[in-house]
Amino acid sequence: MAADDDAARLAIFEKYEAGREGGVEVEDWEDPNLELYAVTDRYGFMHKERLPPSNPTQKDLDVMRHRAQKWSKMLVKWDSVLGTSVFRRRVFKGVPESVRLTVWSKFLDLKTIKKPGQYEAAYYAARERGKVKDIDQINKDIARRFREQILFRERYGQGQQILFRILAAYSMYNTEIGYCQGMDAIAGLLMMYMAEEDAYWAMCKLMSSEKYAMHGLYVEDLRKLHEMCNHHGTIRRKVLPKINKHLEKVGFDPTLYGTKWFMEGFQERLPFSLVLRIWDVYLYLGEQVMHAMAALLIKLFKKQMTKQSFEELHMFMKELPGHKFDNDEVMEQLDLMLQDLTKQKLSGFPKATSLTFLPTQAAPSYPVPPEEFRDLTLRREKRLAIKSLPPGMGLERESDSLASESSMSEGMASPERESATSAPTIIPLHRQEAAEARAAEPLTSPVSTNGASSLRDMPVAEEKEEEGASTPLAQHQTNGVEPLQLESSFSAALSSSVMPESAGRPTDLGTAVEEDMATTPTAYTAVEGEATPGDAATPKAAQGPMANGVIGHDKSQLDASGSDQSLRIRVSTI
Predict the structure, then answer these.
(1) First-last CA distance in the chain
(2) How far apart are CA 210 and CA 222, in angstroms?
(3) Which end of the chain has fewer CB atoms at under 10 Å, N or C?
(4) 341 HSE (CA, 13 A, CB side)
(5) Which phi and psi (to 5°) does residue 481 adopt?
(6) What does 275-306 look like in DSSP terms, one character per residue?
(7) How far is CA 569 from the centre of its chain?
């Protein structure tokens, strides 16, 4: 029996370690055929119909640039602005894509919690003696999770490999949980913005910190999930008595919809652009945000819900992602709901109750893996997941050099530098030469300092927001996903494996975009961490939310034939 369990466990590990490149065979329904998706939005999610191009106005671009500059200043003076009303307001207005990685990492204090070598050791321990039950469930859930997300779509592809390693390693880090369904959603979200090991430690923080205490959601008795659903029922009765009366009459219990909301952080139940805004605030304030957001959703749709039967309510909750949301309006209402719940002492649990949601056992420390395993890991890190790309696929363009340049000009760690890992950097030779030439030039910040000698000299006191700064761009008519914002065609890059900045250094974003639109894709191959461009002209590199992703694109870069002009390739690390 034990021998059969060992064989079953190792068979799963070997498939993920070999990947499709290693000859792993998959079922027909698991193969995405590596097609280029004209229906993929800026976050990597595919839709049933082709998405319209985004055409932001100059005013939109100016507002976004202004907001990125404000956040760059706040990152320089992080400790002094963290608890201010200005900071809170800007978090609710949304963290710019260009700095989201850095901001999330600071919220989670990743620099202080990471323990070198322990992630690799935990993964090796899972491979050698992990529970077959946990490993088998991880394998099944990964195949089902994010089926419409281009990073995770390919069976045993790079995205699924990384997600598997994170979850398998965590099953050994937190043996009280091992693995529970729903954890894959949290890890996947973190993966879209963070380097692999950073995402792992971020997950550790979310589980074990009193501020978030997600551990209680996934333990065997699901104690925190039950408490959160019960608390939501209390909020319904006290804050929303009319709609609560109808819901109780038809027997629509909070557990029927709260389970997905709380265990997956509202993913797959709301548009992803809104989910990111919620997580900006959640990582800042903690679990009280989940209580407030659940109450707000009932409040927003109480008119429709009061007319619905049990079956209609059940379907309605599943169809929420299809509703058109004004994200800025929702976040303003969320802030008000948080304030209301705080006044009524309903924003969270008593401290004694919260402590019961935390791990009771110290995280184990595993021995360093044997040398042969570490050599295998190193070879994998230096191997590009995709040796050759289909026609039309190139490196994603850079459309957000603003924040990284302004931060580096003041000595502040950029997202790439702050999250640097051991992954090799894929840099074409002509771009290496351009980077060397640019390194000799003095750095010039595009941020206007209004006479101040540097960003550090500029005040970070209450500032009057530009008119229209909180006005969202026109949303998609069909899915409510926010359109392209020139802060980034994806979210901020997270590791040193991201392509370097383009040789040019435009300070005018409008000009930069026009230049980007004129570029053509290139095919890349890589050997031992080096890449060689193909015959086509090389587009600019970009930062994007698929921090460990194989490919991702900006929907505005789709040409008339549906070809993607902004895809990129990445190398992951363990």
Answers:
(1) 31
(2) 17
(3) N
(4) 27
(5) -75, 135
(6) HHHHHHHHHHH-THHHHHHHHHHHHHTHHHHT
(7) 17
Rounded CA gap, 347 and 338, in Å?
7
Is the pLDDT score of 350 beyond 80?
A: yes
Distance CA 158, CA 147 (A): 14
pLDDT higher than threshold 70 for residue 562: no
Rounded to an integer, what is the distance from CA 11 to the centroid of its chain?
30
Dump pLDDT digits (tens) for 93-134.
999 999 999 999 999 999 999 999 999 999 999 999 999 999
Is residue 335's pLDDT more than 70?
yes
H-helix or E-strand spanning residue 351: helix 351-355
Alpha-carbon gap, residue 264 to 168, rounded angstroms: 18
CA distance 332 to 468: 15
More confident residue, 355 or 456: 355
| Nearest-angstrom CA–CA distance, 406 and 178 | 43
Let me know: does 61 contact 509? Beta carbons within 8 Å: yes
- Element (DSSP H or E) covering residue 525: strand 524-527
Distance set, CA 428 to CA 398, 503, 533, 572 (Å): 15, 12, 6, 18
Helix (H, G, I), strand (E, B) or coil at 406: helix
Q: Copy the structure tokens of residue 501.
A: 């900045």
Helix (H, G, I), strand (E, B) or coil at 539: coil
* Mean pLDDT within 290-295: 97
pLDDT above 70 for 483: no
Contact between 460 and 86 under an 8 Å Cβ cutoff? The reply is: yes
CA-CA-CA-CA dihedral for 228, 232, 235, 239, to nearest 10: 150
Residue 444 to residues 142, 438, 492: CA-CA distances in angstroms? 45, 11, 21
Cα torsion angle, 265, 271, 277, 278, sign: negative
User: How far is 150 from 160, CA to CA, in rounded Å?
Assistant: 11
Tokens of 471: 């006005």
User: Tell me, what amino acid is at 346?
Assistant: L
Question: Count of CB atoms within 10 A of residue 83's CB?
Answer: 8
Of 60, 64, 54, the C-alpha closest to 97 is: 64
Q: CB of 34 within 8 A of CB of 28?
A: no
337 has pLDDT over 50: yes
3-state SS, residue 22: helix
* Longest CA–CA separation in the chain, Å: 75
| Alpha carbon separation from 306 to 8, 116, 293, 299, 321 (Å, rounded) | 50, 54, 19, 11, 20
Of the candidates 142, 134, 139, 147, the one whose C-alpha atom is nearest the C-alpha of residue 32 is 147
Q: Name residue, tokens 């679990």.
A: 287
Residue with tokens 């973190």: 190
**Is the distance from CB of 265 to CB of 275 less than 8 angstroms?**
yes
- In angstroms, the CA 482 to CA 271 distance is 9
* β partners of residue 92: none
Task: Report helix, strand or coil for 478.
Answer: coil
Q: How confident is the model at residue 382 (pLDDT cuts 50, 70, 90)?
A: low
Alpha carbons 64 and 59: distance in angstroms, whole number: 9
Residue 220 tokens read as 């065997």
Residue corresponding to tokens 């008339």: 560
> Can you say how many angstroms the Cα of residue 240 is from the centroid of all Cα atoms in its chain?
32
